[in-house]
Amino acid sequence: METVLDTLFWIVLFAHLVMALVAIWRIGRGENGLVRLSGLDLFSTLTIATLVIISIIRKESIFIDVAIAAAALGYLSTVALAKYIAEHRMV
After folding, report:
1. Which of 38-42, 75-79, 81-85 is least confident?
2. 67 contacts: CB under 8 Å, gap ≥ 6
3. Within 10 Å of residue 49's Cβ, how many Cβ atoms?
4. Reduced to 3 states, what is the DSSP secondary structure of residue 91?
5. Residues 37-58 pLDDT 10s
6. How far apart are CA 83 and CA 13, in angstroms?
7. Which of 9, 64, 70, 85 has a 20 to 30 Å separation from 31 between CA atoms?
8. DSSP 22-89
9. CA end-to-end span of the chain, whole Å?
């Protein structure tokens, strides 16, 4: 049973990494700032999920701590960029 779960975790990790590459593509090729901001937010969320999956695979809790810090930074950067985009459009 444990090998099935390990295999499943590796498959999920691979899927998250592929989705992160798509989010990076969207950040680079977005039509406007809002699309790029949503891609950045998606990439931040996928990074957090990837860190949690790595923590489960390696059975080490340090990755959970890093994921919590990344979540805080991702939230703050999303709010700051959204505020910048909103003020830039008004001017």
Report:
1. 81-85
2. 48, 51, 52, 55
3. 16
4. coil
5. 889 889 999 999 999 999 999 9
6. 32
7. 70
8. HHHHHHHH-SSHHHHHHHHHHHHHHHHHHHHHHHHHHT-THHHHHHHHHHHHHHHHHHHHHHHHHHHH
9. 59
Reduced to 3 states, what is the DSSP secondary structure of residue 1? coil
Domain ranges for the chain = 2-90
Q: What is the pLDDT of residue 78?
A: 84
**Considering the entire predicted model, what is its pTM?**
0.83
Q: What does the mean pLDDT of the chain come to? A: 90
CA distance 48 to 68: 8
CB 81 within 8 A of CB 37: yes
Confidence of residue 28 (pLDDT cuts 50, 70, 90): very high
Q: Are 48 and 20 in contact (CB under 8 A)?
A: no
Quote the CA–CA distance of 84 and 89 in Å, as a whole number.
9
